Amino acid sequence: MKRLFNHSPAIFILMLFFFAATSSCEKIEPDTPPGNTLPADSIITISQLRELYQEEAIDFEDSGLNIMAIVTMDDSSGNIYREAFVQDDNAGILIRLSQFGNFSEGDSVRIALRGAILDEYRGMLQLTDVDGRTNIVVQASEKYPNPIPATIDQLTSDMQGMLVKLEEVQFAFGDAGAPYALSPEVQAGTNRRLEDCDGNSLIVRTSGYANFANELTPEGNGSIIGLVGEHLSDMQLHIRRTSEVVMEGERCEPPGEDLDLITISDIKQMFADGATSLPPNSRFEGVIISDRDHENLPGQNAYLMDEAGDGIALRFQSWHSLDLGLKIRINSSNLPITRYNGLLQVDLIPLGNAIALGHGDMPEPVVTTIQNLKNNINDYESTLVLIEDAILPGGGTFAGNVVVTDNTGSVDMYTTNWASFANTQITGGRYNLVAIASIFHSPQLQIRNLDDLELLEEDDHQPGDPVTSIDEDFQSYPNHAIIDNYGWTAYAEEGGRNWICRTHNDNHYAQATAWNSTDPTNVMWMITPPIDRNAMSNPIFEFESAKAYYTHDGFSLWISTDFDGTNVTSATWEPLEARLAGEQDPDNNWIHSGYLDLSPYQGILHIAWRYESAAPQGNTGTFRVDNVKLYED
To answer: Which of 64, 303, 532, 609 has its CA 20 to 30 A from that of 616?
Structure first.
């Protein structure tokens, strides 16, 4: 037996103690099969096994140690796979099988520890690499231990792996009457929140492969039997069958009615007056306006609006199950309030502090313009707004920042990379757009799902069509994305590097660099959409550039009248005179190009920034481009 990391002599002393003490404390009496008699000092209890773990994995190798246990849950229901829960009189543990074995729930078994590993996975202690064919020997059958009576607040890490029964509990309002688990095509496992009448809660975790996954959770109050698990400090329960979930009583009265009711406006004023936490014995209430099902926000976050139309961001201690349209009460006593990247939020909310009150009336979004929203963001933040006649550009997806404009200004619309619609192609055009007004250093919009977009008129301009105006600040590109959307072309002539988006202080810009490149040479082009010069009278072109870590003069500007949009090197390119950031300029300072008159050119034009470098020779400097504009003078 060895630790996988550092050997410790203490473990051997501890084992000698176990060998001497075990025979007097073991209560499960094995029915040893003939010819398989075990020395008494080779058997340890599960409690003693668990005590061996000191935050370092233990490989039992050729150890002669064994544990005697009863199987309390096997994988026959599909709720766990190639796993089993076992326990003795005082402790339990999860075992993970390298090979299936011939045992089932209710079997009394001897588990040989040779070849197994005792380790922790995200807070759950488990015995892994157990060969079910050779390490597990059935001693007797139909040994069904009674579950231990417990309450939610009594479930701790010490009870991992134990069969328990909880009384006077119910599924949280948003999880009652819902399938135990979504299909595995949607997610491997589903968390449903279980609560008691005191506001304590834990997770009921169910696999999408469980044979009862499609059954609905009960809507009443009662009892549940399951095995105790833990994941990242969240206590969990794994049920064996729905017949062990009996909830036919009246649901709890929502707690917190006796707390002092405060409004979101009160919270904002307290913060403005210098408060960093909410008062004791307080509560506030409202309707959830964010949509966790479509995941356009972290799983710990939510947005809430109250009856007065004020909104606030909520940040829970772990993932919540608060659905769109749910009316909730937040026990806010002493909870911290803070601004995170500019957004006011109630922070570190225990899940049990959110009490479902039923289905609420969804607030109507307030009609506003983009400029009015930006000018008054502290009034609008965390509320639903409606931007009428908003323009969304086509040619890209929703992921990251997309610039939305109306006739008053522009604002970023942000979508997480994991949102259900993140990779959906945007149809360019004019929309009525409902969104949550939020802040990330500066104002931004967040739609909840694609139903928040009402297409009024599709823009039939395609990304490859010639343009007569450009206003590109690269804010619609996520960090590290190649600049190749909305009609732009990125081309790596030599090497594997390309022009990409980078960000600093929430400013997005295009960047080319050979820093840390393994290529002998890097040559990369970034090319504008086609410009219809003949449709313009006095076209003006401008941009800003910056440099950092100057090593060589590898940055240049070019123009072509015969580029076909695909074959970069076969086109005719000529230099275009402009002020470019160079050796004489301070690092990271944005330098204006000057106003470039394109009148001397005719036909369809393309303008390109070219970066050339050679990393082995140390030519690895960085160049950047931002705020590219084309317009009529």
So the answer is: 609
Using H for helix, E for strand and C for coil, what is the string for 52-72?
HCCCCCEECCCCCCEEEEEEE
Helix or strand holding residue 18 (H, E): helix 9-25
Give dist(CA 302, CA 495) in Å, integer. 44
With a cut of 90, say whether residue 581 has pLDDT above it. yes
622 and 518 in one domain? yes
**Is residue 463 assigned to a domain?**
no
- Do 350 and 370 belong to one domain? no
Write down the pLDDT at residue 32.
42
- Whole-angstrom Cα distance, residue 89 to residue 111? 16
* CB count in 10 Å sphere of residue 92: 26
Last residue of a domain, one of 196, 226, 249: 249
In this structure, the dihedral spanned by the alpha carbons of residues 54, 57, 59 and 63, taken in order and rounded to 10 degrees, is: 20
CA proximity to 93, closest of 52, 62, 60:
52
Domain endpoint, select from 324, 359, 394: 359
Q: Whole-angstrom Cα distance, residue 511 to residue 490?
A: 11
pLDDT tens digits for 185-201? 877 899 999 999 888 88
Residues 153 and 198 occupy one common structural domain: yes
β-strand partners of 340: 343
pLDDT computed for residue 2 by the predictor: 56
Same-domain pairing of 182 and 136: no
Handedness of CA 70, 72, 76, 80 (dihedral sign): negative
Give percent helix, percent strand, percent coil of the chain, each to the nearest 5: 10, 45, 45
Integer Cα distance of 135 and 451 in angstroms: 55
Residue 417's domain spans which residues? 366-458
CB atoms within 10 A of CB 91: 21
CA distance 216 to 370: 43
Domain assignment present for residue 575? The answer is yes
Q: How far is CA 528 from CA 16, 168, 481, 572, in A?
A: 75, 65, 16, 15
Q: Are strands 66-73 and 43-44 parallel, antiparallel or unpaired?
A: parallel
**What are the angstrom distances between the C-alpha of 202 and each of 194, 198, 318, 355?**
5, 12, 11, 14
CA distance 449 to 292: 10
Q: How many domains does the chain have?
A: 5
Is residue 376 pLDDT above 80, yes or no? yes
Within a 13 Å sphere around the CA of 359, how many CA atoms are in the beta-carbon half? 2
**Nearest in space to 356 (alpha carbons), one of 598, 174, 615:** 174
Q: What is the pLDDT of residue 14?
A: 44
532 plus 606 within the same structural domain: yes
One domain, residues 61 and 119 = yes
Strand partners, 80: none
d(CA 350, CA 199): 10
**483 and 605 housed in the same domain:** yes
User: Which tops the pLDDT comparison, 381 or 255?
Assistant: 381
If you average pLDDT over every residue of the chain, what do you get? 90
The answer to whether residue 464 is domain-embedded is: no
Of 381, 385, 416, 141, the residue nearest 297 (C-alpha): 416
Cα 565 from chain centre: 38
The strand pair at 66-73 and 83-87 is best described as antiparallel
Are 407 and 390 in a shared domain? yes
